[in-house]
Batch of 4 targets.
Target 1
Amino acid sequence: MSSFQIIVGSMLGGTEYVAEACEEQLILLEHQVNLHLKPDFTSILNDTFAQNTTKKSVWLICTSTHGAGDFPDNIQAFVSDLKNCEQDLSSINFMIIAIGDSSYDTFCKAGKELNILLKTKGYSELSGIRTLDMSEDIDPEELAQQWLNQIKDRL
Ligand SMILES: Cc1cc2nc3c(=O)[nH]c(=O)nc-3n(C[C@H](O)[C@H](O)[C@H](O)COP(=O)(O)O)c2cc1C
């Protein structure tokens, strides 16, 4: 059993539904889950290290992309704090669900940028980024749950 922090970047709310579906699935898989709809870097770190240290710590970041490849407003401060953080966070594992629309050249750019940033910072990638294309994927919540199920042995 791992301890998950689900970190959500969303402007219009769609990504929140995906994150909630992930929360539901992870609880079914018997993990411990905290959902952060208004991500605050310090509280997420506190929640991460407050858990029993024998549990694997995982950050699942679910973020859409807005503007011209920008992060949603609600996750911008988190990303900036992450960039500025000098603490060794290599014990934290991460995985990303990036939500976007493939009609944009900057398809899922926010999630892809975060993926690179976390790797650069020394976090361990549990699974390659999962992109969801809102112009094609009819049931993103179901797809996100299926993905978690497919990689459940790594969680
Ligand atoms: C103004 C606007 C700009 C967008 N820009 C991008 C973009 O650059 N890249 C991308 O992949 N998707 C882009 N999208 C698509 C959104 O990421 C997609 O609609 C997503 O489902 C929104 O998630 P949310 O409801 O959680 O905010 C944009 C959508 C809007 C409305």
Target 2
Amino acid sequence: MGIQWRDSLAIGVKSIDDQHKELLARFDKLLNACESGKGIEELKRLLLFLEDYVQTHFNDEEALQKLHRYPGYAEHREQHVYFVSKIKDLRAETDKDGFSLHNVIETNNLLLKWLLNHISKVDTKLGAFINSGTP
Ligand SMILES: [Fe+2]
């Protein structure tokens, strides 16, 4: 188990790639915690971290899109809004009911799958646009 950064995920914008690396490292930490029976506490920690970090990360990405007058801005932002609301919902659930290990694994899969899909399909498009030198 575990999740590793791979070069195919790079979008070619260093500041954004670095943030993506940090995000994946946090998910890796959760996966490792699951293996040592500490998944539930680590999930709570991850959700708290994500609430802040993801917001900053998405703001940075969106600022970059505005700066480059990226035509896919609205669509891209919509995806970010969805993910932020998902994290908030999950945190509200864990605060209220707590989580079983089964939920931890499902939640992790859901968040991680979304993130990897978003980076490899949506963010790479943005990176290609920026690096194409289109004003
Ligand atoms: Fe994005």
Target 3
Amino acid sequence: MKAAVWHGGEDIRVEEAPEPRVGPDDVLIRVEYAGVCGSDLHLMDGWLIQPPAVLGHEFAGVVEAKGENVTVCIKGDRVVAHPLSSCGQCAYCRSGRQNLCRKPARVLSHGEGAFAEYTVVNARSVFVLPDSVGLSTAALVEPVSIAVHVTSLAGIQPGSFVVVFGAGTIGLLCLKMAKQAGARSVAVVEPCASRQDTALRLGADFAASPGEIKDLVDTATGGLGPDVCIEGVGAIAAVEQAIQLARPGGRVVIAGWSPPHATATVKPAYLFRQEIGIQGSFWSSYSAFGTAVDLVQAWGLELASMVTVFEGLGSLREAVALMRGREVIKPLIKIV
Ligand SMILES: [Zn+2]
Ligand SMILES: [Zn+2]
């Protein structure tokens, strides 16, 4: 099969690669669309894995083959899959927290990813799509599932005032989820004017630069601050600003991947006195993934406005470059 292999730096080449082996509990999926994620760029920056590797963990496709134990799908089914094939045995898996699985069987973003004609996952992670969801929209199920997970950890209530840092894919989807959860107002912090416009179009009540947000939120909340801040950038400055901005008793959710060795400055006495909660949010559970399948069905057209489609595996290199330049929000590679 053909795969787009990352060889370090920005070097991605389409090459012949062995078709993945299908174990008795596995599903082989012919990938139709695969999204490029900010975390793929971080992997290419050397944050977690070494080349050569096939990246790509946001995808939708069609079942090509399955192992003898698999009953959740049949050949020809249109599917999405959580990119983390959990072990199904550990205490986290058994309590529905597959994102924290201690010994996953396979993690697509670690090198056997979806920027290829075929990818293989454990059947536990597979979700068959309703007929009404197109495969290009379905490739967004994974990032939507992250926003579902963030929102559940954020404790957003009807009437909450929420500030989201960053109008990239995760920030914009967290904005939509916060609205869905009943937030009375959602403000998006984003320096780039065109991304501010995208946030407003997707339902943000306010969009502001990092320098403007405090005055804006103070005015809107009578000086109290937001109930919830969601950091969707992975920027240390945004983490620190979110902690300062949250109201007494408020919560800060860290949903962005910051450089592995970067540190932020927090004053424990301030967290103590103001009862600020800090919550990490990593990937998503399988149940959040299932919720995301339902949501992409409802949100289809709005999600399409975030997407730029690139034709063929050979276009991955260009898609990555445009994403680094912040010229596109969510590139989708049409594999075939
Ligand atoms: Zn992703
Ligand atoms: Zn596990």
Target 4
Amino acid sequence: MEKVRLGIVGIGGIGSAHFHCVGGGKISGMTLGAVCDIDPERLEYCKGVYPDIPRFLSYSEMINSGLVDAVLISVPHPLHAEMAMEALGRGLHVLSEKPIDIKVSQAEKLNEIAKKSGKVFGVMFNQRTNPLFARAREIVKSGELGGIKRSVWIITNWYRTQHYYDSGSWRATWSGEGGGVLLNQAPHNLDLWQWICGMPSRITAFCGVGKYHDIEVEDEATIFAEYPDGGTGVFITSTGDLPGTNRLEISGTRGIIVIEQGRLVFKKLSSDEREICFSDERSWFDPELETEVFEPADSGGAHAEILKNFADAILFGKELIANGTEGINELMISNAAYLSDWTGRSVELPIDAELFDRLLEERRRGSKAKSGGGQQTHENYSERWQVKF
Ligand SMILES: NC(=O)c1ccc[n+]([C@@H]2O[C@H](COP(=O)([O-])OP(=O)(O)OC[C@H]3O[C@@H](n4cnc5c(N)ncnc54)[C@H](O)[C@@H]3O)[C@@H](O)[C@H]2O)c1
């Protein structure tokens, strides 16, 4: 195979940006093989841009057409795992938009199938390409920060208006979307949080449901995470703050990392605080610190880099930046957060997926259907999906 023929399903907000990117020849090693959407107007739109690209109203027909080697899934989240499993079953490679699904139980089934398939399975965690987060991960993984005592991420600059929530009938309903900010905007940050700091073993969370918008799901969430080694973490997110904040602080036994305003500051101790605490004869003091300031010139290749990496993984066996099987991790945290909020208790990880599915189903049954506006299409990757400070 010289070039991967990509089929894109869902030519809406993000899907139309992927369509222009791949269709416009911006990803070497990848061509646009076909597009699919259940909305005929979206296909008319595609026809107007690239008249020769085959168009399908049915996903199954597209993946059985022999015209595509891989699919990019950019439809509403409750369909992600089911579509990914179908494509893998047909011997296609899969790149799924985030989140990998709305339920851990579905992600578990998908991972089983993906592992057996031998196909490339990636997830669009485009913020992993941002050099700031990659550097933070490197510092933590190398042991330079020591053991993590605490992380605090305030990520409240995902502001959305009521107009946004009204822009699609599936948005911000239990039946259509399956959740709110934890499932739509925060997956990027929840993924980075676990990518850098590891997976927690217990979650306690509080959600603000329809606190700032007329919606039936949460537009604010606060998560308290406990880790197997005794470390803790706090994660606060919201779509109701204007202006909001994006500040990640990770405090370790050998120093502290702060990512804020597009730069990372790492203040390093010369020895481990746990040793200092029990050996130093002074009662308190200001430590000598070595300070690293990392301010990258750009914010990384984002979506296009993930697409290029996916093509390289298929063509040359390159390692994925975001392996699809890792999509379950951030979903485990958000499912646990819902479960904790719904039951009023702390939740051990891995979660009781059956209980989660039952409680989500109750909400989905009680969900109010919305009549929905149309999609906002994008000829380029929108600035609102990039890392913002
Ligand atoms: N990585 C990112 O930065 C990023 C940014 C935005 C959205 N997303 C994700 O992409 C997904 C789509 O979000 P959006 O904002 O583009 O939504 P959207 O509503 O704008 O577009 C979804 C499209 O899917 C189509 N569709 C729905 N069901 C379908 C089906 N069964 N078969 C074929 N087409 C179908 C709709 O007609 C619509 O055109 C979501 O899961 C979201 O989380 C990711």
